[in-house]
Design brief:
The complex is a heterodimer of chains A (about 325) and B (about 270).
Chain A lengths: L1 H8 L9 E12 L2 E12 L3 E5 L6 H8 L7 E6 L7 H4 L2 E4 L11 H11 L6 H8 L14 H13 L5 E5 L7 H16 L3 E6 L2 H7 L2 E6 L2 E6 L1 H8 L2 E6 L4 H5 L4 E7 L2 E6 L2 H11 L4 E7 L2 H21 L1
Parallel strand pairs in A: 3-7, 3-8, 5-6, 6-7
Antiparallel strand pairs in A: 1-2, 1-4, 8-9, 10-12, 10-13, 11-12
Helix pairs in contact in A: 5-6, 9-12
Chain B lengths: L16 H20 L2 H20 L5 E2 L2 E2 H31 L2 H7 L4 H30 L6 H13 L1 H14 L5 H15 L11 H7 L3 H13 L7 H27 L5
Antiparallel strand pairs in B: 1-2
The chains are: A alpha/beta (about 325), B mainly alpha (about 270).
Chain lengths: ~325, ~270
């Protein structure tokens, strides 16, 4: 399992596209808490990368370092080949960050007007508003907007400067399905306009729907990297469900089985490939019944990856 | 691998001066609109000093204190009080909220020049301070029987409005070191005792001796004494002395605010 993941780390990246942002062996600690541990990461022009991880995995810290809002404790961060704290680099970057409170008494078009003025070549305000879908709420106070509308305004502020690189930190958190899909469509439009996007999310569906490449991080370390399909294939494979008299411990020893769980009278098996496992099971148990084979979702992949990572660490501790 | 991949270099984009002026102007304009639309701020900052002045300055305006009409004396002291409130709340309270709840992060992630942000807070505090002082003066002239030559009126306004600077810088310190929700309470804890100790409510003459000693280090005492000097009251100390203390206080606050600014660079909000 770990071996396959290691291969995955070394996935050949396209070397033809220019690198727009990168982290080189970056660690970040806040006091005794390590938020990032030896992260190496690069973002190439025109790609949409999703950084996937549970809450507290270090996703926001990664973005903060790339934006120059926090210093790396070790290692270097580059944004357009310069120090992220360099203000010149920021004129080419837009960011949608998680924010507790936005000034509520300003109107939507006023917020956009102000942020547009920060950039050397902003989009016309009407264009920003139509891309972000905020035209009809332009004259509303920010405080009077719904959650989905607020996120769209923050998106508008991120894109108003016509940046080449867009950081989106959990852009759809707290949105309903419809609002989320609308924002996804906007994000795809940015890619079709030739922009580069770095997105953090803990919605696996989101990474699957949008990203060219997924970087899974947990507890501040990269634990897997690849296309959404790679991640699914490598980590989860197939899910097999059947009713069998075989013992869980016996099934666990079958080659290709990753995980076995007893679910009432049935066995839930996760395997890298379904066919050899099924062949083996049928050979051992003539009375096996209720066979179902499904492809595991990215959700399972993610759970499997983070769980493997955790068990790994725990065993390191006990050693 | 990094050797193979070509890298895009940041093109140095210098903002032409005219655009910089536009950024500063818009930042200040929207800061003003933002605060004006918060009744908690605009009403309390304007109304409290005016209300106190009507109650104590106009209703008992005919009495004499320190050789001048009470309405003239209190015009100077409530003017100081109004300037303090507008400046501390205008810079400190809004900054603490924006800093603590993540909005400042969004601004910092953008190419906004950082001084536009602080400049806007200070500019708006100056505007609100001017409003308070002008309204107080109009009340005093029309209803308080205050008689002043136009030049003296101009001097009084200029003194009080310029006097908002030490309080704006104190506001920056509060903005950096107070929590987003506790900032207004913190400001009241600073501002109300400071007003009392400087003789803004009870004239300095009647303050106990140890309070008078405290007053010597408070910028509000020195500002009020300069304003009182213009209306013909006060202790006639040297203006250089008053300005010197206020300047020292301002420099001290700027130093503390800078500490907060630097501390924030490596800090996590959530």
């Amino acid at each position: 399992m770990i071996a396959t993941l290691e291969q995955n780390w070394k996935l050949p990246l396209s070397t033809t596209r220019p690198v727009v942002a990168c982290l080189d062996r970056v660690s970040k600690s806040y006091g005794t808490v390590t938020a990032l541990h030896d992260i190496t990461f690069r973002l190439q022009a025109g790609e949409l990368v999703a950084v996937l991880g549970p809450n507290g995995a270090g996703k926001t810290t990664m973005i903060r370092i790339l934006l120059g809002l926090a210093h790396a404790s070790h290692g270097t961060a580059r944004l357009f080949s310069s120090d992220p704290e360099n203000r010149e680099a920021r004129t080419r970057v837009g960011a949608m960050l998680q924010v507790g409170k936005v000034p509520e008494t300003l109107l939507v078009h006023e917020h956009i007007d102000l942020f547009s003025s920060y950039y050397p070549n902003p989009l016309p305000i009407s264009e920003t508003m139509s891309i972000a879908g905020v035209k009809e709420i332009a004259n509303k106070k920010f405080g009077d907007l719904s959650g989905g509308q607020r996120q769209r305004v923050l998106f508008a502020l991120a894109i108003c400067g016509d940046p080449d690189l867009l950081f989106l930190d959990e852009p759809t958190v707290g949105l309903d399905v419809e609002a989320r899909r609308m924002l996804w469509a906007e994000i795809r439009k940015m890619i079709s306009r030739g922009k580069t996007v770095l997105l953090t999310t803990h919605y696996l569906e989101e990474a699957d729907a949008l990203a060219d490449r997924v970087v899974v991080i947990n507890r501040g370390s990269v634990i897997a990297e690849g296309s959404p399909a790679d991640i699914k294939r490598q980590a989860a494979g197939r899910r097999i469900r059947c009713v069998s008299s075989l013992d869980v411990a016996v099934v666990r020893r079958v080659a290709g089985v990753v995980e076995v769980r007893q679910d009432r009278e049935a066995l839930e098996i996760r395997a890298t490939e379904a066919e050899p496992v099924i062949r083996e099971l049928l050979a051992r148990d003539q009375h096996l019944s209720g066979l179902e084979v499904t492809s595991a979702g990215l959700e399972d992949a993610f759970l499997a990856l983070t769980r493997n990572d955790d068990t790994n660490r725990n065993s390191e501790v006990t050693r | 691998m990094s050797a193979i991949a070509p890298a895009i270099h940041a093109i140095a984009v210098r903002r032409p001066l005219t655009r910089t002026v536009v950024v500063y102007w818009k930042e200040a304009k929207y800061e003003f609109l933002k605060l004006l639309r918060i009744p908690m701020y605009s009403a309390s900052v304007l109304l409290f000093p005016l209300m106190f002045y009507v109650l104590f300055g106009l209703a008992f305006g005919g009495q004499q204190i320190d050789g001048v009409r009470q309405s003239a004396y209190l015009l100077a002291t409530y003017g100081t009080f109004g300037v303090m409130g507008a400046s501390l709340f205008g810079t400190g309270a809004s900054m603490a909220a924006e800093r603590g709840l993540g909005w400042m992060q969004v601004k910092r992630a953008s190419p906004m020049p950082p001084f536009a942000y602080f400049g806007a807070k200070i500019a708006v505090s100056v505007v609100f301070s001017s409003l308070v002082v002008v309204l107080l003066t109009i009340l005093g002239l029309l209803f308080g029987g205050v008689h002043m030559a136009p030049l003296s009126i101009a001097r009084l306004l200029a003194t009080l409005i310029a006097g908002c600077i030490p309080f704006c810088t104190l506001g920056l310190v509060v903005g950096y070191f107070a929590g987003p929700n506790s900032a207004p309470a913190t400001i009241n804890l600073i501002y109300l005792p400071m007003s009392f100790c400087s003789g803004l409510w009870v004239p300095y003459l009647f303050l106990p001796k140890f309070v008078k000693q405290i007053a010597q280090v408070l910028p509000s005492y020195h500002l009020s004494q300069m304003a009182l000097g213009v209306v013909g009251a006060g202790r006639n100390e040297s203006s250089f002395w008053h300005c010197g203390i206020m300047l020292a206080f301002t420099v001290l606050c700027l130093g503390a605010a800078r500490l907060g600014f630097r501390r924030d660079e490596g800090r996590l909000y959530g």
